[in-house]
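Renewal narrative, Specific Aim 1. Our central claim is that a sequence can be written position by position from structural information alone. The example that follows is taken directly from our test logs and has not been curated for this report. It begins with the C-alpha coordinates describing the chain, in the order in which they were read.
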Protein backbone atom coordinates (compact mmCIF):
# COMPACT_ATOMS: atom_id res chain seq x y z
CA UNK A 1 0.00 0.00 0.00
CA UNK A 2 0.97 3.66 -0.01
CA UNK A 3 0.06 4.81 3.53
CA UNK A 4 1.99 4.99 6.80
CA UNK A 5 1.30 6.36 10.29
CA UNK A 6 3.60 8.81 12.03
CA UNK A 7 3.63 10.44 15.44
CA UNK A 8 5.72 13.49 16.29
CA UNK A 9 6.67 12.56 19.85
CA UNK A 10 6.55 14.73 23.02
CA UNK A 11 10.26 15.62 23.00
CA UNK A 12 9.71 17.29 19.60
CA UNK A 13 6.31 18.92 20.21
CA UNK A 14 7.66 20.34 23.51
CA UNK A 15 10.58 21.96 21.67
CA UNK A 16 8.28 23.58 19.09
CA UNK A 17 9.52 21.33 16.28
CA UNK A 18 6.11 20.29 14.92
CA UNK A 19 6.16 22.67 11.94
CA UNK A 20 9.80 21.99 11.16
CA UNK A 21 9.26 18.22 11.13
CA UNK A 22 6.04 18.40 9.11
CA UNK A 23 7.97 20.45 6.52
CA UNK A 24 10.71 17.78 6.40
CA UNK A 25 7.96 15.23 5.73
CA UNK A 26 6.23 17.16 2.94
CA UNK A 27 9.58 18.21 1.41
CA UNK A 28 10.27 14.46 1.10
CA UNK A 29 7.11 14.15 -1.05
CA UNK A 30 4.81 12.56 1.54
CA UNK A 31 1.23 13.88 1.42
CA UNK A 32 -0.62 14.43 4.71
CA UNK A 33 -4.05 12.75 4.45
CA UNK A 34 -4.97 12.81 8.18
CA UNK A 35 -3.64 15.01 10.99
CA UNK A 36 -4.24 15.78 14.68
CA UNK A 37 -2.71 16.99 17.94
CA UNK A 38 -3.60 14.63 20.80
CA UNK A 39 -2.32 13.78 24.30
CA UNK A 40 -2.48 10.02 24.73
CA UNK A 41 -3.80 8.49 27.93
CA UNK A 42 -1.71 5.86 29.65
CA UNK A 43 -4.20 3.22 28.49
CA UNK A 44 -3.91 4.37 24.87
CA UNK A 45 -0.09 4.45 24.92
CA UNK A 46 0.03 0.96 26.45
CA UNK A 47 -2.30 -0.27 23.73
CA UNK A 48 -0.36 1.41 20.92
CA UNK A 49 2.95 -0.07 22.13
CA UNK A 50 1.48 -3.41 23.31
CA UNK A 51 4.17 -5.26 21.32
CA UNK A 52 6.78 -3.88 23.74
CA UNK A 53 4.87 -4.93 26.89
CA UNK A 54 7.25 -6.67 29.32
CA UNK A 55 10.39 -5.02 27.96
CA UNK A 56 12.50 -3.07 30.47
CA UNK A 57 11.78 0.27 28.77
CA UNK A 58 8.01 -0.22 28.44
CA UNK A 59 6.83 1.78 31.48
CA UNK A 60 9.24 4.63 30.71
CA UNK A 61 8.10 4.63 27.08
CA UNK A 62 4.43 4.92 28.11
CA UNK A 63 5.28 7.69 30.57
CA UNK A 64 7.22 9.57 27.89
CA UNK A 65 4.56 9.17 25.19
CA UNK A 66 1.84 10.50 27.52
CA UNK A 67 3.93 13.42 28.88
CA UNK A 68 2.70 16.01 26.33
CA UNK A 69 0.54 16.18 23.19
CA UNK A 70 1.80 14.38 20.11
CA UNK A 71 0.99 14.98 16.45
CA UNK A 72 -0.44 11.94 14.69
CA UNK A 73 -0.66 11.86 10.91
CA UNK A 74 -1.38 9.44 8.09
CA UNK A 75 1.05 9.95 5.21
CA UNK A 76 0.65 8.93 1.59
CA UNK A 77 3.44 8.13 -0.87
CA UNK A 78 4.41 5.27 -3.10
CA UNK A 79 6.32 2.77 -0.89
CA UNK A 80 5.37 4.89 2.14
CA UNK A 81 6.36 2.55 5.01
CA UNK A 82 9.87 1.81 3.80
CA UNK A 83 10.60 5.31 2.47
CA UNK A 84 9.41 6.90 5.72
CA UNK A 85 11.60 4.63 7.89
CA UNK A 86 14.51 5.78 5.69
CA UNK A 87 13.55 9.43 6.18
CA UNK A 88 13.36 9.16 9.99
CA UNK A 89 16.51 7.03 10.43
CA UNK A 90 17.57 4.44 13.02
CA UNK A 91 15.72 4.12 16.36
CA UNK A 92 18.85 5.24 18.22
CA UNK A 93 19.82 8.68 16.87
CA UNK A 94 23.49 7.81 17.43
CA UNK A 95 23.09 5.23 14.66
CA UNK A 96 20.89 7.35 12.40
CA UNK A 97 22.33 8.48 9.08
CA UNK A 98 23.21 12.11 8.42
CA UNK A 99 20.21 14.06 7.14
CA UNK A 100 17.56 11.85 8.76
CA UNK A 101 14.95 13.37 11.07
CA UNK A 102 16.15 11.47 14.13
CA UNK A 103 19.80 12.40 13.43
CA UNK A 104 18.81 16.06 13.24
CA UNK A 105 16.30 16.35 16.08
CA UNK A 106 16.26 13.30 18.41
CA UNK A 107 17.58 13.69 21.96
CA UNK A 108 18.11 10.02 22.89
CA UNK A 109 17.07 6.44 22.12
CA UNK A 110 13.77 7.03 23.91
CA UNK A 111 13.25 10.71 23.08
CA UNK A 112 13.71 10.10 19.37
CA UNK A 113 11.21 12.68 18.08
CA UNK A 114 9.18 10.61 15.64
CA UNK A 115 7.47 7.29 14.98
CA UNK A 116 6.95 5.47 11.70
CA UNK A 117 4.99 2.25 11.11
CA UNK A 118 7.21 -0.79 10.46
CA UNK A 119 4.95 -2.76 8.05
CA UNK A 120 1.94 -2.22 5.81
CA UNK A 121 -0.19 -4.25 8.21
CA UNK A 122 0.87 -2.10 11.17
CA UNK A 123 0.38 1.08 9.11
CA UNK A 124 -3.28 0.12 8.69
CA UNK A 125 -3.72 -0.88 12.35
CA UNK A 126 -1.94 2.25 13.67
CA UNK A 127 -3.79 4.60 11.28
CA UNK A 128 -7.11 3.24 12.54
CA UNK A 129 -5.87 3.47 16.13
CA UNK A 130 -5.73 7.26 15.72
CA UNK A 131 -8.27 7.97 12.98
CA UNK A 132 -11.64 6.77 11.74
CA UNK A 133 -12.04 5.93 8.05
CA UNK A 134 -13.75 9.25 7.36
CA UNK A 135 -10.86 11.18 8.95
CA UNK A 136 -8.40 9.69 6.45
CA UNK A 137 -8.95 11.74 3.29
CA UNK A 138 -8.48 10.36 -0.18
CA UNK A 139 -7.80 13.72 -1.82
CA UNK A 140 -4.15 13.56 -2.91
P1 LIG B 1 8.85 3.62 16.66
O1 LIG B 1 8.76 4.19 15.27
O2 LIG B 1 8.59 4.65 17.74
O3 LIG B 1 8.05 2.36 16.83
O4 LIG B 1 10.39 3.26 16.81
P2 LIG B 1 11.14 2.02 16.23
O5 LIG B 1 10.22 1.14 15.43
O6 LIG B 1 12.35 2.57 15.52
O7 LIG B 1 11.60 1.30 17.55
P3 LIG B 1 10.81 0.22 18.43
O8 LIG B 1 9.46 -0.04 17.88
O9 LIG B 1 11.73 -0.92 18.63
O10 LIG B 1 10.68 0.98 19.82
C1 LIG B 1 9.61 1.88 20.06
C2 LIG B 1 10.14 3.08 20.80
O11 LIG B 1 10.54 2.68 22.11
C3 LIG B 1 11.40 3.72 20.21
O12 LIG B 1 11.15 4.62 19.18
C4 LIG B 1 11.98 4.41 21.41
O13 LIG B 1 11.28 5.63 21.68
C5 LIG B 1 11.68 3.42 22.53
N1 LIG B 1 12.76 2.46 22.75
C6 LIG B 1 13.11 1.41 21.95
N2 LIG B 1 14.13 0.72 22.46
C7 LIG B 1 14.45 1.34 23.63
C8 LIG B 1 15.42 1.11 24.65
O14 LIG B 1 16.22 0.16 24.59
N3 LIG B 1 15.42 1.98 25.69
C9 LIG B 1 14.55 3.01 25.80
N4 LIG B 1 14.60 3.82 26.86
N5 LIG B 1 13.62 3.26 24.87
C10 LIG B 1 13.57 2.45 23.80
MG1 LIG C 1 8.40 0.41 16.12
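The sequence written for that structure reads:
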Amino acid sequence: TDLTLTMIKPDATLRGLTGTILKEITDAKFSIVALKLIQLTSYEAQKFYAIHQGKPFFNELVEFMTSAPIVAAVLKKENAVEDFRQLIGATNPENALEGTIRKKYAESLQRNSIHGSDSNENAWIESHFHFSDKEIYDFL
